[in-house]
Amino acid sequence: MKVSVIGAGLAGCEAALQLAKRGIEVDLYEMRPKKTTGAHSTQNLAEFVCSNSLGSLDPTNASGLLKAEMSALGSFLIKAAKESQVPAGNALAIDRVVFSKKVEELINQSGKINLIREEVTKIPTDIPVILASGPLTSDSLAEDIKTFTGAEHLHFFDAIAPIVEKDSINFDKAFYASRYDKGEASYINCPMNKEEYEKFYNILINAPKIELKEFEKNAKFFESCLPIEVLASRGTDTLRFGPMKPVGLIDKRTGVENYAVVQLRQDDKSATMYNLVGFQTNLKWGSQKELLHSIPGLENANILRYGVMHRNTFINSPEILYPTLQCKKRKDLFFAGQLTGTEGYTESIATGMLAGINMANFLQDNDLLELSKVTMLGALTHYISDNEQKHFQPINSNWGIVEELNVDKKIKKNKKLKNEMLSNRSLEYLKNLLTV
Ligand SMILES: Cc1cc2nc3c(=O)[nH]c(=O)nc-3n(C[C@H](O)[C@H](O)[C@H](O)COP(=O)(O)OP(=O)(O)OC[C@H]3O[C@@H](n4cnc5c(N)ncnc54)[C@H](O)[C@@H]3O)c2cc1C
């Protein structure tokens, strides 16, 4: 029994190790150093391409809970990360060279993994496959994935808007309305007067941006998907005639049409998360926070996902995957990592782990592991495979996607207590699952 894992990045290495642990032989393909991605700078396995942090370790933080779940489920890379840790407060930051070395040792010691330094240009058809070639999948393989999934199911660029938690919006200022009262009043609107708009505009045009990598600079963005900072640079009023257009949006409490309006659109079925319409951005996260908190109604908004922009190859998972990460169209094919539309280092390792476990389950005729939405990993895999979604965009771990607690509003308002309860519920669920 043998599996091909394509890509020895974060997801691919974790998946290969999970397979090896279960006695399955792996051909692990990595195209570096023969061919590189433009973002990777070494030939090391599981290279961290940008920051060296995996985020919080606190299990009452969304990313921290994901890591606690992964430790419970036996993630090799989270263990290696902890052994390569450098001081960073509550966050799990690593020495990336030490980390890659540890991963390489694990791969070599497994006795089951054959590392092949070659580019894979087509999805192999004669062997079970885990595709973990990442956001910078080589062009030829991306082309083949496109053919396999159907052209409309492969996306290349991320220009995504921030998402905030509804419960943290101040409804003394924000109001529900649809433009010209058309349809249900399902949008949340944050109104601005002239002075507030000017303050917002000044923060925006002076905010530092993340430098795009050389290969990303030539990217063509759709005119309708331009980052807000690009629109703002065209003139003071460009945003007021674009995504912040106030026309037709009346606050029924005052009868006023405002100077500018930021609209938020529901992002999940349970209406806990709202994205800022037309607010895709490449600002640094600190600046995004300052900018969003300058918007009336969002002064204390809890930002569940920041806007990002970089080349990001990802499949339209809601059409293609089950929550087990198995492909609907081909049962011996699993997807893992950023390619699935889960965003971030921790999330990539997590989906690599699940794909590895489930490929082994599939080959050994065991039931596939479909985690409940009470866990962060289950919530993520259900979110990306929810085929009722119309405009799928990558997501990272956040409380908004987790199954709601069945408790009264008072407890829900106490964020610390609520997160503790959510975290305990997940870890308890996994404890039961693992003892069965
Ligand atoms: C520029 C950039 C910066 C990012 N910064 C951060 C950050 O700071 N924090 C964060 O949490 N997330 C960040 N991400 C998002 C994401 O977490 C990382 O990209 C993460 O490494 C994804 O893990 P992965 O395993 O899916 O892909 P990767 O870790 O990229 O692994 C994929 C591997 O597949 C190989 N490969 C590609 N095509 C082929 C092929 N055809 N044949 C063989 N091998 C192939 C690649 O060389 C690579 O080694 C960033 C992404 C990008 C693009």
Describe this structure in words.
This protein has helices at 10-21, 62-72, 76-83, 96-110, 139-149, 194-206, 214-217, 228-232, 285-293, 317-320, 345-363, 376-384, 409-413, 415-435; strands spanning 2-6, 25-29, 53-56, 85-86, 91-94, 113-116, 129-131, 154-160, 163-165, 175-176, 188-192, 250-251, 256-257, 260-266, 273-276, 303-305, 308-315, 333-335. It is globular, with a radius of gyration of 22 Å. A 6-stranded antiparallel β-sheet has the order 10-11-14-15-9-16. It has a 5-stranded parallel β-sheet with strand order 6-2-1-7-18. It has a 3-stranded antiparallel β-sheet with strand order 3-5-4. The longest helix has 21 residues, at 415-435. It has 2 domains: 2-158 and 310-435, FAD/NAD(P)-binding domain; 163-306, Elongation Factor Tu (Ef-tu), domain 3 (Beta Barrel), CATH 2.40.30.260. Helices cover 33% and strands 17% of the residues. With 436 residues, it is of the alpha+beta class. Flavin-adenine dinucleotide is lined by residues 6-12, 29-32, 37, 39-40, 49-51, 119-120, 132-138, 141, 213, 310-311, 337-339, 344-345, 348. Flavin-adenine dinucleotide binds at residues 6-12, 29-32, 37, 39-40, 49-51, 119-120, 132-138, 141, 213, 310-311, 337-339, 344-345, 348.
